[in-house]
Specification:
Strands 3-2-1-7-8-12-9 form a 7-stranded mixed sheet, sandwiched between helices. A 3-stranded mixed sheet has the order 4-6-5. The chain is about 35% helix and about 20% strand. It is built from 12 helices and 12 strands. The longest helix is centred in the C-terminal third of the chain and has 20 residues. The radius of gyration is 25 Å and the shape is globular.
Length: about 300
């Protein structure tokens, strides 16, 4: 299906807009939120049936050039081709994917041939991104790598944590230093009547099931540096949760471990000033701090308790 001229236009005015890219728009669950946040939303979706629904649902926004829809398979430049095979899931449209599914589940898919476009060509046509939501089933890492290798580092970006490489790409190749994590399964539950910043001022917004949730300054949690974020990601594990990054925030560069050591040094100094040196100080340090004996010569005996 060909896109309308309005959808394909890339005039100079568009490049001064705040543009959000919904890469993997699916059924459009994120589009109403993004329209509140940006001058222009570019939605990329491979499934032709879903794009028909999106054009009907957002006909007014399309006519006003607030929304543009690219019905294509998103590929990296190295994979660029006029048409490519795509795998539509027979029961769950969210599981459609460009990479060939594993043989154990391939019978759950219909193989079709669809038009393809490179992610760089789409960005060049519509303008520089303010935020990119990346949710391309089985292909996030490839597209993310293509963006970062070509210097595409928007102020805000999110990608599903399909593997640890997504984090390493964002922190290493991307150079991002501020991270947050959003749980995909509980977006609708956690972000009901959630306060957001819009083009028309503050609003309360309820995110639907299967949407990506808020981004940027609408996220409720603190931005973590890479040292603090990695243990959180390791504890949660890979899967249906999105890694959000920004280049507009500089979190405390000190890791939790460094902060803890620094706080303990301050506390030890205060205790020494309070109790001076001697058995009383030894007892307080070992029993109250519960970390390590302040006197190395006693460490083997006290075992974090003052056993003399």
């Amino acid at each position: 299906m060909q896109n309308s001229p309005a959808e394909n236009s890339g005039n100079a005015a568009a490049f001064s807009r705040t543009i959000i890219y919904d890469l993997g728009a699916n059924n459009g669950g994120d589009i109403p939120y993004y329209l509140r946040k940006a001058d222009l939303v570019v939605a990329v979706e491979a499934n032709p049936a879903l794009c028909v629904d999106l054009r009907q649902r957002f006909s007014a926004e399309l006519a006003a050039d607030r929304l543009r829809i690219e019905n294509c398979v998103l590929v990296a430049a190295s994979d660029d081709a006029h048409e490519v095979p795509f795998y539509l899931h027979k029961r769950h449209h969210v599981l459609g994917q460009f990479p060939q599914p594993d043989e154990s589940v391939i019978d759950d898919y219909d193989r079709v041939t669809l038009p393809a476009q490179s992610v760089l060509a789409i960005l060049q046509r519509h303008g520089p991104p303010h935020y990119i939501k990346l949710d391309i089933e089985g292909y996030d890492e490839v597209i993310l790598s293509e963006l970062l290798r070509n210097g595409i580092r928007p102020p805000y970006l999110s990608a599903e944590s399909s593997s640890i490489r997504v984090f390493t790409l964002l922190s290493g190749l991307g150079g991002y230093s501020a991270f947050q994590l959003v749980e995909g399964k509980t977006v609708a539950e956690n972000f009901r009547n959630h306060p957001i910043h819009t083009r028309n001022g503050p609003q309360a917004y309820s995110f639907p099931q299967h949407s990506a949730g808020p981004f940027g300054d609408d996220l409720p949690g603190p931005w973590l540096n890479a040292d603090n974020f990695l243990p959180l990601l390791a504890a949660k594990g890979m899967g249906w949760r999105d890694i959000h990054v920004t280049s507009l925030v500089q979190p405390d560069p000190t890791s939790h471990a460094q902060q803890r050591r620094r706080n303990l040094r301050h506390l030890r100094g205060w205790l020494r000033a309070k109790f001076h040196r001697g058995p009383a100080l030894h007892f307080v340090l070992c029993c109250c701090l519960h970390t390590f004996c302040a006197f190395p010569s006693h460490a083997s005996r006290c075992n974090n308790r003052c056993v003399r």
